[in-house]
Automatic annotation (TrEMBL), chain A:
Protein name: Uncharacterized protein
Superkingdom of origin: Bacteria
InterPro entries membership: DUF6186 (IPR046177)
Protein's UniProt keywords contain Membrane: yes
Record's keyword terms, sorted: Membrane, Transmembrane, Transmembrane helix
A Pfam cross-reference name: DUF6186
Membrane-spanning ranges: 51-69
UniProtKB/TrEMBL annotation, chain B:
Top-level lineage group: Bacteria
Keyword Membrane annotated: yes
Name of the molecule in the record: Uncharacterized protein
Transmembrane spans: 12-31, 37-55, 75-95, 115-132
UniProt entry keywords in alphabetical sequence: Membrane, Transmembrane, Transmembrane helix
Length: 70, 134
């Protein structure tokens, strides 16, 4: 029963992402695309340091390490 | 409102894809054959990450148009993040194993299969390349 809850929870999060991807691609949508959100996060800088860029690239590398190397 | 990344597609995008897609496929096919917890898998992931992060922090990869400010609609993206983060935090904190598995634990049997592993490798490296070009 608890396992079903976990599977349902993670599935609903992924379904929400899929729905937002579709909604964000519609013409005139007020929801930005995932790419636009990532681009905005990556444009964040503290002085000359591209903190957002380093953070997001580093996070994505860690995702690969966690799921594909381990 | 037209999305900036659609408007900013460069004329050479097709030619670039003709190079990057085969490279990503080869990277994914090799990565998919390497078993979990192996030195080869660690080195392959590490090497791929180093190359892509270097490209992402340098000026060699051509980038899409500069990001525009986001409207309040961007807050919707926090919803799946909160749902996923909430379930991951609870399942991790309770450490109930297969009774209440974390996302990683759920994915383990899926990623044990080489075909699924290659597909995951392709999705990961393609998204990585997308971030590099942002």
């Amino acid at each position: 029963m608890m396992r079903v809850l976990a599977v349902g929870g993670f599935s609903s999060a992924l379904a929400l992402v899929a729905a937002l991807v579709v909604l964000g691609r519609r013409p005139g949508s007020r929801i930005p695309s995932l790419g636009a959100v990532c681009g905005r996060v990556m444009s964040y800088e503290v002085g000359p340091v591209p903190v957002g860029r380093i953070g997001l690239l580093g996070f994505w590398w860690w995702v690969g390490w966690h799921f594909l190397a381990r | 409102m037209e999305q900036p990344e659609v408007a900013a597609r460069a004329p050479g995008a097709r030619g670039r894809a003709a190079v990057t897609v085969p490279v990503l496929i080869v990277v994914a096919l090799v990565g998919g054959q390497l078993p979990s917890f192996s030195t080869a898998a660690s080195l392959w992931t590490l090497g791929t990450g180093i190359v892509l992060i270097r490209l992402g922090l340098g000026d060699r990869a051509s980038r899409r148009a500069a990001a525009r400010p986001l409207g309040p609609g961007a807050l919707w993206w926090l919803l799946p993040l909160a749902v996923f983060g909430g379930f991951e935090a609870v399942t991790f904190a309770l450490s109930a194993g297969d009774d209440l598995p974390t996302f990683s634990r759920l994915m383990d049997p899926v990623l044990d299969r080489p075909v699924a592993r290659s597909a995951a490798w392709f999705a990961w490296s393609a998204a990585f390349w997308g971030l590099v070009r942002r």
